[in-house]
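Researcher: Here's a chain I'd like modeled. Treat it as a single chain, no partners, no ligands.
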Amino acid sequence: MPKYILVGVDDMPESQIALRWAVEAAEQRGLGVRVVRAYLNDLSRWPMLGMAGYVPPPMPLDQFQHELDEAVRFARDRLGTERGSGWLADSDPPDALLTEAGEAEMVVVGTRSRNKMSAVVLGSVATAVAAKAPCPVVVVRGERRTGPVVVGTDGSPDSEDALAFAFEEAAQSGQPLEVVYCWQPQAEHANPVDSAEGLLKNWLAESLAPYRDKFPTVKVRASVVDGRPSAQLLAMSETASLMVVGSRGRGGVAGLLLGSVSQSLLHHADSPVAIVRRQVG
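Model: Modeled as a single isolated chain. Structure tokens:
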């Protein structure tokens, strides 16, 4: 069965932006789109939930179905009838998306605007899906725009998968690719800073050679920059069309599903962010 791009929708404008992003990505890749409209029917779970004497109002199932039908219709109008499908899921939204993610090429979800409450808004869907999905997850913020695809790398296995995804995305979208290695020189380094930076640049160039051969049409700029990865990548997100990072970097802890850099970008980046988990097997 051909894979699809999975996208979650609800009644918020941000989900419509995510839907358009997913459909455009599917057009570029020759894939279909599967739309999930999830909801939690508290009434069906009563009286296990809530306070005594309170009965939740009935769910507007017709409205949910209408939202799903409109999203599927949009996908089919752009991609063809056979390449658009949907599921109205009586389930927690992250659980519904993760259920369908096993056959997906990627998952696309929208997020709210950046503000002090962004962590709370993100927590229920985007962060949960990005942390557990078996495929790349793109968290969309704002309309699709032109600009480089930016990928952060540090030589870890996670960042290798992120590199592969970033090259593929740049090739499909026609955007240039910027590969960034961030480091923070320490005073106790035995080698002079210039020497260490030169070694890193040589390593980065060598590590990218196989990808350049596989994607000869992608315009690549590789750089070694001094500073914290989260700060440097956030600054670059202001002009990027997509930021790509692994779910955990070299300092990742096995019990933490998302590292500090990916968490920071999810909550504060000025562009869509792709979180790429290490694929096993």
